[in-house]
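#struct-pred

JT: dropping the chains for the assembly here, can someone run the whole complex?
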Amino acid sequence: MTISTLAKFGFKRGDYLIVAVVLLCAGLLLLGFAGKSVPQVLSVSVNGEELARYTLPFSSEISLDELLYPCTLVIDGTTVFLRDTTCPGHDCEICGTISQSGETIVCLPNRLLLTLSGGKSNVDAVTQ
Amino acid sequence: MKSKKLALCALFTALALTLSYAESWLPLTLLIPVPGLKLGLANIVTLAALYLFGFPFAAVVTFARCFLGAFYASGPTSFWFSICGAAFSLALMSGLKALFPRSISLWGISIAGAAAHHIGQMCAAAVLMRTTTIFSYLPILLLASPFTGAITAAVSLPVISLCAKLRDKPSI
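RK: done, full complex below.
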């Protein structure tokens, strides 16, 4: 649609200015938010039931004593790992740390699942 | 004259309520999944009220619409959202209309009103949820507002010109 067609509908100079200002604001905000990511959320679930959620960055050491094989959940800012596991396999310790959205730590003997969500992911999509 | 205005006020409020209810049948968010995105059909009534009878009349109609809509349908949280959006929108629209009557037409006023409505609602949400991350939706809503605002203006234009003729008739 050209400017002359819009003028036929009664568009005035100020109207273009308003559209320009609105779009400019949107663009600037979009640029401002592009670098910023939404906070990551750590979800802790056992047997498929979510027991706790932590919004990162957050630092704490949480003893998961009620599990079948007790261990310690360490949240260090934006990285998460398990320590002092008493399970036979130690798979969850071997898994190492997670810090990216979409990453998980699974402890099968404990049926424990730690998932990071939200934030900015390094991948576009993950197929499951 | 006073009773005529009262009756018109009730009529406009009823129209605005009907339009905002009818809008829930047009799930625009299914098409573009952004919370808060809507056509703003009730703004047709606000625009008409503002152009035909001025700011005080439009303010009364808008407040009544928000209050009654929340009272009968959507609840107190929604009242807070809609009153913030409506207040921002009406303030900007009437301000622009009064300050630049020659250089800005109904189109610009409507688009500015749509944008201000979104800004007001986002501010309300930010206060209510105590987070500014909600503002990340604002750019998309602002990008949509020239379109939604233009649609509202396109409907308002014939409505206003028709109502203006009726308003100026001495018989009603």
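JT: nice. The domain at 40-118 of chain A is CATH 2.60.320.10 (mini-chromosome maintenance (MCM) complex, domain 2). The first strand of chain A starts at residue 40 and ends at 46.
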